[in-house]
Specification:
Layout lengths: L5 E10 L2 E11 L4 E5 L6 H8 L7 E6 L2 E2 L8 H7 E4 L11 H11 L5 H14 L15 H12 L6 E5 L7 H16 L3 E5 L3 H6 L3 E6 L2 E5 L5
Parallel strand pairs: 3-8, 3-9, 6-7, 7-8
Antiparallel strand pairs: 1-2, 1-4, 4-5, 9-10
Helix pairs in contact: 4-5, 5-6
Length: 227
């Protein structure tokens, strides 16, 4: 049996004491690319927030990259987030810092100290997303697609076992969305697990992979044709 990076058993997710998704059973193995789809309000973001500790898991059993989600303490959340990379729809770059400074801030916050090692790491992740020449640019000087590439690079800084991408193409035009997906696919092909919440069915058709759908408080696997 393959080692899992994410395992959920009989999990029910609540938002403000209301059931959002119930009876989730899921195992994700290293190197998988998994889509989470569904209409707005069906639980995609709540599902993702549970995985990175923003919503507590109170019912069922769950583990991600070795952390027990049900027993997760506030003190453990920063350590969990060093082992997972999170990519948001709205990029969440610090507007008053350059691309390099955005990266440097994350590394310092997660315990890196050697300036030379930090620069090498930053250059490496920026190169992996095609943004190496943009280190001195400010976020407002970048297009939406470029900002998202930087956000993906930021998610790679601590060599996460899994990347959680919550609507990463939601603010992008179709062509830019394809470019960002090509970056994510390349990262996945290097062996990294990616779970991506999206409502962009055109992308799923262009980049098919295992797909789970949130609907009527449940989550279930769908075959490509019924997406």
């Amino acid at each position: 049996m393959s080692e899992t990076v994410l395992s959920l058993k009989n999990v029910t997710i609540y938002q403000s004491n209301k059931v959002v998704l119930s009876q989730i059973n899921l195992d994700v193995t290293p190197g998988e690319f998994l889509y989470i789809i569904g209409k707005t309000g069906t639980g995609k973001s709540s599902f993702m927030k549970t995985l990175y500790g923003d919503l507590p898991l109170t019912q069922g059993e769950g583990s991600i990259v070795g952390f027990d989600l049900k027993k997760l303490t506030d003190n453990e959340i920063p350590f969990l987030r060093r082992k997972i990379g999170i990519v948001f729809q709205d990029f969440q770059l610090l507007p008053d810092r350059s691309v390099f400074e955005n990266m440097h801030f994350v590394l310092k916050a997660t315990g890196w100290k050697d300036a030379s090692e930090m620069k090498t790491k930053i250059d490496s992740v920026l190169e992996s997303v095609g943004m190496l020449g943009f280190s001195n640019k400010m976020p407002h000087q970048l297009s939406g697609g470029e900002q998202q590439r930087v956000a993906i690079a930021r998610a790679l800084l601590n060599d996460p076992e899994i990347i959680l991408a919550d609507e990463p193409t939601g603010n992008l035009d179709p062509q830019t969305s394809v470019e960002v997906m090509n970056v994510l696919k390349k990262i996945n092909e290097s062996g990294r697990t990616i779970i991506m919440a999206t409502h962009d069915y055109a992308l799923i058709m262009k980049f098919p992979s295992k797909t789970l759908k949130c609907e009527e408080n449940t989550i279930f696997e769908v075959v490509q044709k019924s997406v």
